[in-house]
Amino acid sequence: xxxxxxxxxxxxxxxxxxxxxxxxxxxxxxxxxxxxxxxxxxxxxxxxxxxxxxxxxxxxxxxxxxxxxxxxxxxxxxxxxxxxxxxxxxxxxxxxxxxxxxxxxxxxxxxxxxxxxxxxxxxxxxxxxxxxxxxxxxxxxxxxx
Length: 145
Prior knowledge:
- This protein has two helices and two strands; from the N terminus they run ααββ.
- By secondary structure, it is mainly α.
- The chain has one domain: Pectate Lyase C-like (3 Solenoid).
């Protein structure tokens, strides 16, 4: 193998493990508010206005979205394992079949959210606002209507 290729390959592998997400996916998402089936794992999106974002089937593992606005966002089948969604506005978002295992949702607004078939195991749901929220088992929560 060429001696120049080996260090470049090593740096590419190392940077993908440190950052997690694909830079071009993040850039595209920030420009268009759409990132279908892309990799934004471990991205820092705290406090951003991402209302009506389309993130269907995206990898958002460990993403930091605290205090973000995801009002009416399309988050169907996304990986939100261990994501920080504390104090996030998710009103009327679609999180059907999303994986929220171990996610932090403390104080999040889930009014009108679709969680049909979502995974909420070990998610921190302390102080979450529920109203007309469809839960993974098909029931509705109306605690804060």
